[in-house]
Amino acid sequence: MDDDFYSRQTPYSDPGELDISGLPSDPRGLALVVRNVMIHQGDGRRLGYAIPEERLREDAESRYVTEILRVLRERRDAPLTEARKPEERFVGTCRDFALLHVSLLRATGTPARVRGGFGTYFVDGFHEDHWVSEYRLPDGSWRLVDPQVLHPAYGDLGFDPLDVPRDRFLVAGDAWRACRGGAADPGTFGFWSDGALRGMWFVRGSLVLDLACRGGVETLPWDGWEPLAGFGDVSLSDGDLALLDAVAAAHTDEDVRRLCAQPRLAPPREILSKSPSFGLREVTLPRH
């Protein structure tokens, strides 16, 4: 996995026939494009817009960028560079902001990927499940971007959303290590609004989903598969724990490639998706 790999679109990030000639090519400009065509499910009050229930239910099930772009065209047939009124936007999750940003970065020549982990800037003292984008700099290092919070309504977060500090967003591997090593309480990782959706099992699932995203399978936040990305507590062997520790320690492209090939980690074609709107369903993924 090199610059070429992270510059190539996946079945999830592929924008199809999108005309990119009018798009900016820098990460900042593209993050602003994304921010101006999407509204997060929780942004209605911030933006003074009552989001229709059917959009809350249906938009966030759009697994592919082509679906996101189709919805945007249906609501207003205009270039992506034109900011939209709330009712003209795609209603998504943090994952959708990240995926569209990654798609546009790749389309304009910047290696990028979706990252799963936990943000500390939503609820004091809590690590909220969250997804951001990450792009590779010319020197080979990676920079985190949060297009979702790139809006005045979020106020002053104390950092630049276009360069998110890694102690404000913990990628899933860092979260796993912190919890395993006793530096953090697993009970503070997950969803603040739902006490059942937090804990070490949640961190484990995030760790495996993040690996899948790094390997080119950009899941929905509520996807899962057995044995290591399942829902709820399971009995883990010493071998399982060692494998998960290896995922948390994976930094090189070679490490990611090797771990993505592990049968106990790799997403199968038939996975489970536990959608907040539609409940537990079986979903068939594209061949990968």
TrEMBL record:
Outline the extent of the Transglutaminase-like domain: 86-149
Q: Which domain of life is it from?
A: Bacteria
Name used for this protein in its record: Transglutaminase-like domain-containing protein
The record's section on SUPFAM superfamilies has: Cysteine proteinases
Organism listed in the record: Streptomyces caeruleatus
A Pfam family it matches: Transglut_core
**SMART domains, per this entry?**
TGc
Q: Where is this region: Disordered?
A: 1-23
